[in-house]
Write a structure and sequence with these properties.
Largest sheet: 8 strands, antiparallel
CATH class: Mainly Beta
Number of domains: 1
CATH topology: Pnp Oxidase, Chain A
Order of helices and strands: HEEEHEEHHEEHE
Strand content: 25-35%
Number of helices: 5
CATH architecture: Roll
Number of strands: 8
Radius of gyration: 18 Å
């Protein structure tokens, strides 16, 4: 994939992540808690590749991070199944009221009785060095089948539809 294609896939990833928002997120290295669906909080003004999550201090990934988990695994599939992504990287609780205010949504308010100042609320910042991103398509599936039928590695059929993009 050339630089222009990577730039296009990068833009497409951030757009569909902002649109779809639901990801699976799991802490790495402590406990055995499974991945949980979480709502990714993104903003066009955040240009450093960070993804934020509102979490509970008392359960799940929020509790894990506050207990010392410092790495997470992120997986994502867009609503239309056209973009898939995964990443591993640092996750941390951040005490940033301005960022909470910036990212707050009516949906987030449904989870926290006291709103933005709820004592159970913790803001998590996920900062992977990169994302693995795939563009899925029916044409890509058919190309993989054709590769397999002629004895080629079907996994090589989609080189133009996947890339490692910087965060």
């Amino acid at each position: 994939m050339d630089h222009e294609d990577i730039a296009e896939l990068t833009e497409e990833f951030w757009k569909v992540l902002d649109d779809s928002r639901v990801v699976m997120l799991a802490g790495i290295g402590t406990g055995n808690a499974p991945a949980r669906p979480m709502t990714a909080q993104t903003d066009e003004d955040i240009k450093d590749g960070s993804v934020y999550f509102f979490a509970s201090r008392g359960e799940g990934i929020g509790r894990e991070v506050l207990a010392g988990t410092s790495q997470a695994c992120f997986t994502f599939q867009s609503k239309d199944n056209g973009i898939l992504a995964s990443a591993m990287g640092p996750i941390a609780a951040v005490n940033d009221q301005a960022m909470i205010d910036k990212l707050w949504t009516p949906m987030a308010a449904t989870y926290y009785d006291q709103g933005r100042s709820d004592p159970d609320l913790v803001l998590l910042r996920f900062t992977p060095p990169e994302f693995e991103v795939w563009r899925a398509s029916t044409g890509g599936f058919l190309k993989a089948v054709a590769y397999k039928l002629i004895g080629k590695d079907a996994g090589q059929a989609h080189e133009e539809d996947r890339a490692t993009i910087p965060a």
